Amino acid sequence: MTDWLAPSLASAVVAALLLGVSCGLLGTIVVVRRMALTGDMISHAVLPGIVAGLAWSETRNPLVVLACAVAAGVAGSAAFAAILRHTRLKPDAALALVLSVFFALGIAMISRLQPSGVQAFLYGQVAAIDRNDLKLLVSAGLLTVVAVPAGFHLLRMVSFDPMFSRITGLPVRAVETVFYVLLTVTIVIAMQAVGVVLVTAMLVTPAAAARYFTRSLSMMAALACVFGAAGGVAGVWISTLRDALPTGPLMALAVTAIFALSALLGPRHGWLPQVLRRRRERTRIRGEDILKHLWQIEENTGAPAERTPEQLAGVFGTSRRALQRFSALGLLDREGGLVRLTGNGHQRATELVRAHRLWERYLTERAAYKTDHVHDTAERLEHWIDEPRRRLLAEQLGQPTEDPHGSPIPPDETEVAR
Amino acid sequence: MDTAALETHDLSLSYLGKPVLHGVDIEVPRGSLTGIMGPNGAGKSTLLKVIMGVIPADNGWVKILGKPLRAVTGRVGYVPQREAVDWDFPVTVADVALMGTYANIRGWFGRPGRAGRKRAIEALEQTGIRELAHRQIGELSGGQQQRTFLARALAQDAEIYLMDEPFAGVDAATERAIVSLLGKMRDAGKTVLVVHHDLRTAARYFDRLLLLNGRVVAHGPVARVFREDILEQTYGGRLSLLGEIAARAARGEGGEQP
Prior knowledge:
The complex is a heterodimer of chains A (418) and B (258).
Chain A (H helix, E strand, L loop, with lengths): L6 H26 L3 H10 L1 H10 L5 H25 L4 H23 L4 H6 L7 H20 L1 H9 L1 H7 L3 H23 L4 H12 L6 H23 L7 H19 L5 H31 L7 H8 L3 H9 L3 E2 L6 E2 L1 H24 L7 H8 L5 H10 L16 H5 L1
Antiparallel strand pairs in A: 1-2
Chain B lengths: L5 E10 L2 E11 L4 E5 L6 H8 L7 E6 L2 E2 L7 E4 L13 H7 L14 H13 L15 H15 L3 E5 L7 H16 L3 E5 L3 H7 L2 E6 L1 E7 H4 L2 H8 L4 H12 L7
Parallel strand pairs in B: 3-8, 3-9, 6-7, 7-8
Antiparallel strand pairs in B: 1-2, 1-4, 4-5, 9-10
Helix pairs in contact in B: 2-3, 2-4, 3-4, 4-5
């Protein structure tokens, strides 16, 4: 435990926290603007600047390095914009072009100038972050944490609808410049922790995970910060457990694990909630089919119908879950091993039959379906036609009393009661 | 007489070597409701974007309320084409309506004020979607989506409105609601230009029509312009020589060497 208090470890944890938060904030904007590859382009484009800065400042002044890196990143973004404007290349090709050319230039400069400390940017070394780096990291992190929420409205509007922003007279270009500079600074700093290739993971993954929980941009940004910080700190912590565990890749893996969990369990489009929802719907439909089955036996025989679960299984397949749920809901009665409709079950079945027959009538009358084509679709859709829509169908069809096959359409029971 | 709400002079534009607009000269009076019609590729949306200064014209100028566009920012309202919107973007109906008031935001730390919020809510009421305020825009029906962007335009409280196919993909009730809203806007003195596709409703919905097919085929009051021969000219194929020669000039090739 005392390891946590060691100065190098403490600075690594602070670095990871700040990185996670800045990457989460900016990554959210990056993800909703669908510009993840632009982030990747910037992380490669800054390399010539970093090399120049390291070669130029012999004391390895982080501010000089950062300034050179941002200049190179801005040059990369400008080159990208110029290619889009003046050639017919599409954005993906333009990004690939800028990324590889700038990176090639950076690598060539490394060979020629052989600056010290460049390894940290290529592969990332949290442990190598010293007091100077940390000071810069803290200031840049604070800048992002203040600037992004403050300009949130502008950033959101310009990202969502740049054309409308321009028409409204917003300073679109200034907003974009601020955003790109903040993004580039964050990327350069993140590179020191995770290296050039994994920056995109820190930027994109927490925000992508946050999308599984919310549809609000501000909430998404907040969650992305939490995920980024948690992943970052987890990466640092895991790397202390064994020797020769690299921190940067572990951070990237940790945020990816958070993403995987979110994709699995997230309430919005996550895998498990969807599976459960679908299963619940299947059970409901099975139960409703059983209600209707019993109702129709009663319609044909004129007497209350009882069936054993086995008889029902013969028609519908094993329906244990549907029987359980519908008895619990008070729609079916299972006393004495026989399944029969309760009063409420009878009413629900009547509604289903009414929906089914109204729909058949609607299809033949209004959509020119042939009479022998309507049963299957009505069988499927009857489960989705609710009370207001049944009423609307009946109204539009002039309160019909028979379906196209001549069977009676049961009247609306709430109306009968009135 | 008052200066026109919108005046364009000799607007021409080529895109990727293809001429899109030829010498568009129009003058739209204030407080009028104009339908912009023409076949696919006639340059209708492009004309709106050139008017708003989003796409620079190769030639010609635009004046709005007698002034260059720069002098009247914030007084032009816009409803984009449905395809131009990222429906997946995490914003709510209320967020979008509020964006109509952002012209008043000052500086990086500025945020929408109480007056803006009030205007956005009123706009949502006018378009009949106040109860949907907290829905994400992708969860709406086509009609509701169109109403959302109409509400944003209303919240702008502009003087001249440009709308790109507001009737595309909407239900009958929404279409009626939009038509009545457009009438009210005109009666309140606003100038409205609407890109429209349906010839059957054009004469009923608008006071004036601008028939476009790369060039202005006709422009004026419905009674004068909505005629079979003019429609035939608009929709019955482009002037092939006009397009061909302008395309050569745009590509900068195919001329005779002396």
